[in-house]
Amino acid sequence: YPPLTLFTLRWLLPVELQRENYPAITKIGPSLHTASAVFYTVVFYLIWQLLYYAFIVYGRREKVARGLRATSYTWLLADKDGFVARLIEKFGFGSPDDGINLYKVVFYFFLQFGYMLISILPVCFWYYRNMYINGIFLCSIFAVSVYNGASFYIDVFSRRYLKSLELLHDCDENEVNDGATRHSITCCPLRKASQTSANCSVNADASSDKKSS
């Protein structure tokens, strides 16, 4: 939502409403002051990070250690194929199998701090100054999010479909090996479910025919 909010307030909101509700936009002018923007962003980021450490990392450390609370840093540090876990392992702070220690958490926070600084610079240099660049960035975020969401659902449902095909194949092999072709419906759960639904539809059609007659 922050990129959409920036685009709406900066480019879509009329000047009269900007002056009335958001006077800071008109006072800033056509470009952001990079030093001030970075300074205030760092201040708010450090406040948020300290509160996060106090209430989550320290305050909920027992529940996080037992897996009762899922957090961003525990997820990223435990992901063996993720960029963060592999980078931490290269720096010698341990692999994902070694668990989460204080060095990993501190390194993760500094890495997140660097990412925050890098991500704010395009806003100061391009997105706030040029509507078209800001719009292209917003559309690219939307396209990537749609692609990731569609890929996730396709991956999940394709795996379920492949599992169902494997189950049918195993049932067919068992029927051939056992010679129990007459039990082909009852030996396979998928066929049993499909046969049950088919019987229900046949019974429903028969009852409707009786009522009509």
UniProtKB/TrEMBL annotation:
Coiled-coil regions listed: none
Lineage, uppermost ranks: Eukaryota, Metazoa, Spiralia, Gnathifera, Rotifera
A GO BP entry: phosphatidylcholine biosynthetic process
GO MF: acyltransferase activity
Keywords attached to this entry: Acyltransferase, Lipid biosynthesis, Lipid metabolism, Membrane, Phospholipid biosynthesis, Phospholipid metabolism, Transferase, Transmembrane, Transmembrane helix
Protein family: Belongs to the GPC1 family.
InterPro entries, per database record: GPCAT
Protein name as catalogued: Glycerophosphocholine acyltransferase 1
Topological relation to the membrane, as annotated: Multi-pass membrane protein
Organism: Rotaria magnacalcarata
One GO cellular component term: membrane
Regions crossing the membrane: 37-59, 105-128, 134-154
Keyword Transferase: yes
Predominant localisation class: membrane
Annotated compartments: Membrane
Source species, domain of life: Eukaryota
